[in-house]
Every structure is written in structure tokens, then in C-alpha cells.
Amino acid sequence: MSKTFEQVIRLIERGDVKVSDHGYDELTADALSARDAVVSVREGTVAEDYPDYPKGPCVLVLQKDRQGKPIHVVWGIPKGKSSPAVLVTAYRPDPARWEPDLLRRKK
């Protein structure tokens, strides 16, 4: 498992989580709730891991909303900090851009 994802889960379990402005915009655009993303994080699967991302380590996680439908959530931790877990963005994955497992981008 990704070290970043492990840290994100620990932070969320402590309640140390924030949703970015962009995250709120994207949640709203796809009729998702921040609660869905937070509640389902433990059952998520890392699709992509970016430990060296310039703004801080982040991971793209395949999760499910309350109806069990797939969502992608990007979780990050600010550069040079150990908290909070930040919901950077969340969206419903486009099947035209992702393999059927929604974990790999189509080439």
C-alpha cells in the first residue's frame, strides 16, 4: 500500500481532513458528497501514487459513493507538512478514459 494513502487514512480517522475549494467544486459538479469520500476511504484502492508531487504527496483512489457507484478521489498532504489529509478533487470516472477496472488509464 502507498505510504501516502496510509497517512491519509490515519489523518481521516483522527478527523484531520480538509476539502479544497477545487474539491468542493468538483464534488458538486458530479453530485457527490464529501461525506461519501471520507466514509469510503478505508475500502479504497490506490490507482495512482504521486509521492513526489510538487505540491505534496498525493494519491488517486478508487472509492464508492453511498450507492456503491465508483468515484475517483485525489487525496493529498500539503508539501512539507504532516497534515491535514486534503481532498483535492473527486469525480465519477469516465469509462472512455479508464480501463474497465477503473484503476488504469486507457492508452
Description:
- Helix content is 24%, strand content 28%.
- It is an alpha+beta fold and 107 residues long.
- It has one domain.
- It is globular.
Descriptive tags:
single chain; 107 residues; alpha+beta; 5-stranded mixed sheet
Taking all Cα atoms into account, the compactness measure Rg is: 13 Å
Strand content: 25-35%
Computed structural class: alpha+beta
Taking the sheet with the most strands, its summary is: 5 strands, mixed
Instruction: Point out poorly predicted stretches.
Output: none
Number of helices: 3
Number of domains: 1
Task: List the secondary-structure elements in sequence, H or E.
Answer: HEHHEEEE
Q: Quaternary status of these chains?
A: single chain
Share of helix, binned: 10-25%
Overall, the morphology is globular
Mean pLDDT: 96
The counted number of beta strands is 5
Strand order of the largest sheet: 1-5-4-3-2
